[in-house]
Structure formats: C-alpha cells, structure tokens
Amino acid sequence: MVKRPAGYPIVLTADRTLMANYDVLFDGMMGTIQTTSVPEPVMRHFVAPPMPRQGLAARKAPLGVRRIEAALLRDGFDRSDVIVVRPEEIDEVVGPETRVVAVSSSDPLGYGMSNTTMTDMAGGRLYTHTWYKRLLRQLNRMRQRGLRFRILAGGAGAWQLEQHPGVARRLGIDCIVSGHAELDAPHLFRTAADGGDLPWVFRARGARPDQIPPIHGATSMGVLEVSRGCGKGCQFCTIARERMIHLPMETILSDLEANLEAGVTSVCALSEDFFRFGARHGQPDPAAVKELARQLRARPELRLIQLDHCNVTSAALMSDDDLREIHDILVEGQHHKYLWVNLGVETASGELLEMNQKGGKIRPFRVEEWGELCEETVRRLIRAGYFPMVSLIMGLPGETEEHVAATVRWIERLYRERLVIFPIFYSPVIPGYGRQFTIQDMTPLHWRLFRLAYNLNFKWIPRMYWDNQTGAGAPLWRKLFIQLTGHLQIVQWQTKFILASGRLRA
Ligand code: SF4
User: Fold this and answer.
1) Measured in angstroms, how far is the CA atom of residue 17 from the centroid of ligand 1?
2) What superfamily in CATH does domain 217-501 come from?
3) Three-class SS of residue 162?
4) Tens digits of per-residue pLDDT, 38-53?
5) Taking the model in full, what pTM does it have?
6) Which of 297, 245, 294, 235 is CA-nearest to residue 270?
7) Would the CB of 344 count as within 6 Å of ligand 1?
C-alpha cells in the first residue's frame, strides 16, 4: 500500500516483539521473553529481526490483527482505508485523516508468567513492555501535535491493562478491547472513528466458528488458528472460562492459503489443545485430528507444521497408534525430528492442581493419578516421536514443600528422556488470587527443581532449535547466531544459578 500524505483512517499494529520476522514458532517465543539485558540493536536486528513489508504494509502480522482486518473488510470498510503496519511505519501512516490506531500486544505490561520469570532471572526490563510503552508514547506525541485519533488496545494481554487502569490511562489508551472482537470490531471502529462514546473496557461477544472471517494476509510465524479457547477452569489462566471452539476446515485451509500465497511455508497449528480438535463432550476424536493433519500436509510447498499446546488428558485419551499416526502425517517428507508440543503439567501434585482449578484439567482422571498420568503421557508422546515441552508453575497458591518435592521427584524420573521443562513463576491473572512468586521466594528445593529443569533444557533446546530452523529453511547465519547467543544465555543463567543458589548442577 502506498503512502497517503493525510494518513490512513484505520491503522492496525502490534508491539514490535510480535511484529518481527520469525522463521519458527520458537523464535517468536524467544523474541517475546527477552529483556533489555540483550542490547537493543542485537534484539532489533537479530533476535526479533524486522518484519518485511510491501510498500508501507507489513507482509505478516499477528493472527489477532489479521482477524480484525478481515472483520473490517467483510463489513464494508474500504481496503484502501485500512492498513496493517509495523511500529516502524507509524509516522508514515498516521496523519490528519487517521481516526483509529489499534495496538495489539500479548504482554503489554510484562505480567505474563513466562516473562516475569525471565525478568527475575535475566534482569533488565522486558522488551514487550518497553517497546509497547515507546509506541504508545509516540502515538501520544502525535496527538499532542494536533492529530485526532483514538487508541484501541487489544490482544491476548489486554487483561493486564484492565487490571492496571492507571497505567493504561497514562499510556493514552481510549478503550481496552477484551476478547475476540471479530463480530464487534466494525461497530466499535466506526464509533471510535466518528468520535462516539467508547466504554473504558469493551468486552467482545466472541464469534461462533462459522462467524470467524478468513484472513487476508500472512500471519507472524505462520500461525494458523485451528481451535480457540479452552474452558477447563484453571485459576491461573486467562482463557479458563472461554469454551473451546474449533474452526471450520474451510476457514483453516483458507488461512493456510493466505500464508502460502505470501510465501510463508512453515506454519503452526494454534490451539490450547491440539488433540482436542473436533472433539465433542471432551472425548478426543482421533479421526478429526488426522483429517486436519492430512489436509495441511496435502500442500507440497508446506515445510514445517508445528504444534502449539496440548492437554495432558487429551493426549492420554489417545491410543499410541493414533499419536504415532498423527505425528507421522505432520512430519511426512520433512527432516524434522523434534516436533515439539507444549504440555501444561503445572505441578506433579494433583492435590495442588485441584486447589487451583475449577473444572476439567484433570477430568476424566482422578486427582491422585495426576503425577503418574503426566509422566506416562510424556513417555508415550516421546515414544510416538514428539518432543514434549513441559511447563510447570512455581508458587501456585497453597503450594507446600511437599508439593515441590513431588515435582522434583517427577523431573528426576524423566531426567534421561528427551524433553524440556520450563518452570515459570506464578503470577495472578485473577486480582487477589494468590500473589506474585519471585526469585526471592525460591526455597532450596525450588532451586533444585529449577536447576534440574534447566540442565535438561541446556542439553536439548540447542538441538531442537537447530532442527526446527533447518526444517523451516532458515539461513545458516541465523542458525549459527541463535546457537551462539543461546550458549551465551546458558552461561548467563548458569552464573545466576551459582550466585543465587550456590550451585550449578542439580
Ligand atoms: S487447561 Fe491449560 S489452557 Fe485450559 S484453562 Fe487450564 S491452563 Fe488454561
């Protein structure tokens, strides 16, 4: 899209850590957890390299931004009035005719659990927060110079702005958009553009699967939404009460086409529970998952099909043969040995998990079975060819030393397996429900858990990362750069282990 001297009426963008040119999903995960302990030029050009653009428009954008763009176009907004841009182009696209600038972020204030852990361990301030603030300040300076547009703030991290209204107001935000807003975006954007009244927090109604508009351009990291929501009721999760829905196959394939047309050849099937795709009444439907995998794999130009999350229970309810067959379809024809899948174990103690969830994270299994169920499911996934990436939460409300000890023993039993484990610090997503866990709260047993997990990670992550990048066709210089910076970060973390806990090894 070309430069319009008076600016575009509707400008959609996201914080710079999301608007980066990542080859694989893990790149994006690494890019969005970095702190200012990484020098900014290194971060901006190598860790989160600039997104390519076509004219002034970003060639790729976060999925949520693409959905809003699609919703506006479907409702009659003129293509030439709506632009999706990188933060770098804001000065060029915002002008006297601009009425709305919408900014998406998954962690605008840096309160995401992985990110608070990273800040404590690596020091510095998170780039997600730092760059988000910088972008918002830039927009405010433009308004002080006389431009008249409203700022809408959305994305997966909108809950943080809601919980810290003082900060959000100081950032000049006019309206916080909470939830999936495809149905409401046209009316909301028209109201904002016409100077109408905006609520401080706009709660989107959410869309039925058939109401979700197919996207019109490529997504960052080739993110391909297959399901949304979860609804299993965990008190530490922002989508605990959002019922899971599955996108129609036509929408998924249309979104895939939009990515392929733009030259994106590695995608990621986005879901909080991949093995629940197509499931009814909580029981996985292996045939539906296989059909999804086959439909994606049918495109010969597609390289990696990466996974995102799966639930322990959904994987546990699948047979070994089904798990293996799904794996084999996904990697067919690819040199891809580390098909990772993120598994939310959280704690090996079913009792502790039960205290912190109000629904089905453990069902249909019994609370007492949780630790063993997770262990067995991890082993079965490994045997079926997957690379489990386990997340644990330290400092869950009600946690005792015995709960931590159970998780330590759980890791020890899996220590010789091919997996990685990320312990993260508990951070409340429900105001007043527990308190932020920090590095100062770590007992010697927490440290042992942390060192055990990271000794595994230091061994396997470089191999997995190399494999993923090779599979996606990343250039050699980038693979070498990631290996080098990865090793520097390992040394940084090991130093932290020694300084903070007096030990390097578990
Ligand atoms: S199972 Fe996972 S995604 Fe679902 S509510 Fe619990 S933590 Fe959230």
Assistant:
1) 24
2) tm_1862 like domain (3.80.30.20)
3) helix
4) 999 999 999 999 999 9
5) 0.94
6) 245
7) yes
